[in-house]
Amino acid sequence: MSFRIEPTAHPTPDADRKALLEAPAFGRVFTDHMLTMRYTADAGWSDGVIAARAPLAIDPAAAVLHYAQEIFEGMKAYWLADGTPALFRPEANAARFNRSAVRMAMPELPEEAFVEGIKQFVALERDWIPSGDGASLYLRPFMFATEAFLGVRPAREYLFAIIASPAGSYFKSGSAGLRLFVSREHVRAAPGGTGEAKCGGNYAGGLIAQSVASQAGCDQVLFLDAREQRWIEELGGMNIMFVFDDGSMVTPPLGGTILPGITRDSLLQLARDAGVTVREEPYSIEQLKADVAAGRLVEAFACGTAAVVSSIATFVDGDQEIGLPAATPVTTRLKSALQSIYAGTAEDRHGWLTRIA
Ligand SMILES: *Cc1c(COP(=O)(O)O)cnc(C)c1O
């Protein structure tokens, strides 16, 4: 699968780009190009091109605007310590993208096309990869239904695209740890729903909970299961893990309502490699309170591509505040283990790095 490359006639001047890369705010600055590829039910995928980033023209009847067939991925390109640009587990993003596509009745994209598209796109935009601690070029592959048709059935036409945004660290460094708002009013995902698909609709449904959380002075929402409002699931865009006083770790099991994070999977593997006992098992909010009170639960952290690993300081459940100890040695150790693999300074035992020529 190859992509036609049509470099923009108006690239951002070097000095302007360098200024933009000084302190990029997440998701506000974009690179010069985008990748697009079209799908029709009759012709399949065609017309892959990397060209100047520009507004998209879509019909007002495009199915995505009415019935929300849209999925996306989030991944990063960054500099290895040896000065090579790299991607972290892009095949895992490609595979997850297709699982999301299947759930949303959208066409799958050959995994090679996804990975090759990302590589060619990043190769063209390499000057936009910021350097510095935790900085990266955030890549956003996405796909949506373009067919102009208001009938309710899976659309027959789609656009796949990739855009990119240089990013510094997601959460301000030196911050004390996340304050999580336990959502009792809203749920993110229900059994049989779309919780394990990375679709825009899951985010749309969670935004109100995020607003409530912000008003309560919290950083993020912690969602509980839909059936019993008892089991901890995940945050709006990050998975969650717990560390106990015996050194073991727990994370909620994937089971249809939790997004299968690649960071989650990587951290579980690294913890197991390090001999840590890791359990993927249900953990209730009531048990969490009892374990904090008993001094058994000693650390908790959120994980995802954008923020990598962020320790959690406080859970806010109604008028109860549950605070965790300030020291986070296991979280810090796991985070740096993952970051050394990202940077190419630790042995890449699982073949997670893809270097870009
Ligand atoms: C993307 C996402 C995650 C994290 O997945 P990563 O692959 O680790 O970035 C977790 N939860 C939700 C809801 C997500 O959308």
TrEMBL record:
Protein family:
Belongs to the class-IV pyridoxal-phosphate-dependent aminotransferase family.
Q: In which pathway does it act?
A: Amino-acid biosynthesis; L-valine biosynthesis; L-valine from pyruvate: step 4/4; Amino-acid biosynthesis; L-isoleucine biosynthesis; L-isoleucine from 2-oxobutanoate: step 4/4; Amino-acid biosynthesis; L-leucine biosynthesis; L-leucine from 3-methyl-2-oxobutanoate: step 4/4
Any Pfam family matching the protein: Aminotran_4
Per the UniProt record, the source organism is Sphingomonas sanxanigenens DSM 19645 = NX02
Q: What class of enzyme is it?
A: transferase
Q: Superkingdom of the source? A: Bacteria
Listed name of the protein: Probable branched-chain-amino-acid aminotransferase
The chain residues annotated with the modification N6-(pyridoxal phosphate)lysine are 198
The reaction(s) this protein catalyses: L-valine + 2-oxoglutarate = 3-methyl-2-oxobutanoate + L-glutamate; L-leucine + 2-oxoglutarate = 4-methyl-2-oxopentanoate + L-glutamate; L-isoleucine + 2-oxoglutarate = (S)-3-methyl-2-oxopentanoate + L-glutamate
Cite the entry's keywords alphabetically.
Answer: Amino-acid biosynthesis, Aminotransferase, Branched-chain amino acid biosynthesis, Pyridoxal phosphate, Transferase
Q: What does this protein do?
A: Acts on leucine, isoleucine and valine.
Q: In Gene Ontology terms, what is a biological process of this protein? A: isoleucine biosynthetic process
What cofactors does this protein use? pyridoxal 5'-phosphate
InterPro entries reported in the protein's UniProt record:
Aminotrans_IV, Aminotransferase-like, B_amino_transII, BCAT-like_C, BCAT-like_N, BCAT_family
Enzyme Commission number? 2.6.1.42
Q: Which GO terms describe its molecular function?
A: branched-chain-amino-acid transaminase activity
